[in-house]
Structures are given as structure tokens and as C-alpha cells.
Amino acid sequence: NAGVTQTPKFRVLKTGQSMTLLCAQDMNHEYMYWYRQDPGMGLRLIHYSVGEGTTAKGEVPDGYNVSRLKKQNFLLGLESAAPSQTSVYFCASSYYRTWGRSGTDTQYFGPGTRLTVL
Amino acid sequence: AQTVTQSQPEMSVQEAETVTLSCTYDTSESDYYLFWYKQPPSRQMILVIRQEAYKQQNATENRFSVNFQKAAKSFSLKISDSQLGDAAMYFCAYSDGNKLVFGAGTILRVKS
Question: Among B54, B95, B102, whose Cβ lies nearest the Cβ of A43?
């Protein structure tokens, strides 16, 4: 049971280049998330998905696209990278709670990807 | 929109002593979840403790406990018998069942 994994762990891009970050989870979780972490700002939600084939915008979605073609995978794409997208990116997943207050519960995080855009 | 505030950017504690990290949040919901996550230098986000708002009893996990004051919208983390391995960034987070909202974090330094 690997939990949540992210590929790659590190990446350096030039301005204008594109790339895709891959997140995979083997816990059969419904919900998946992409965050970015910048110094002094905690984690901010970019996009999330409440199930296969669905995506929704978070707090800072501009410049990013996502896809969830399979339940276990959640892809984050940068079409034209900018220096402002230099950050650490985290993927997370959670199960859907159907008792008590329904909805997402504890989120489990991947190890993160450090992206530098020059 | 919900917000989470951690007013202590940095805290220090002597090994074996107790430290409390503060967190306040703002919400109009009556049912929600609160979390403390630990982020050591390895960067991995690790769940420390979780509290459901409808439960009056404060959550505890070994040396970690919370003081949940729902009316005051306060959710502090107490670490007892601090160890060198507790040194990390600690994030308080709020969830209304859909998304997590994080505070800016508190760096905890443990002195030997």
C-alpha cells in the first residue's frame, strides 16, 4: 500500500514550457486535490476532484488545468509555465464520508514536487 | 469564506517540556472538522490529530492533545514531553466536508 505518490519529485522548467504532474493513490479514495505551498502562506488549493471524470476550481486555479480520467489518478498541467508558479506542489486524497456529516474527511498527502520555473 | 489564523510564526520549547500552538478559525457552519498537520524537513505532510466539531470531548493522540473551544472558534494543540523529532512546521486546518483551508503555519523548534 503506497498511499499517495507523486511524479516527479523535482523539476526545473523554463518560462513558457509545459509539463504535467502525476498523482496516484491506491486507497480507493473518491476525492483528490492539488495544492501549492509557498513560504509564509501555508497550502492553497488549486483544483480538486470529487470523483472520476469531475474537476472543480480551488482558491488559485489560474494557469493550471487538471484531469481525472481514472479514479486513482489526478493530473495537474501547466500549459505555459511562469516564474510565479515556482512552488512546492502537493497532491492529497480522501474518502467520502457517508455517516454523520457527509463529505470529505481526513486528507492524505503525497511527498510533494518541487518545481522551479526560470 | 472560511479562514484559519495561526498567530505564532515561530515557537521554541525545551526538550521534555510542554508547548501549546494556537489556532483560530472563522466559519458560519455548525458541523465541521479541524486538523493539525505536521511538516518535518522531509516536506511530508503528516496528520497529527483530528477533531469533529460536534464532539465536545477534546481529541488526544499520545503526547498530542487539543483544546477545542467551539464558541470561541479556537483549536490549540498541546505537545507534552516534547522530543527533538517534534521539530517541524505545524499547520492547523479546517474542513467543512469538501475542502481544507490551512493556516500559514507555526515553526516549532525543540532545544536539547
Answer: B102
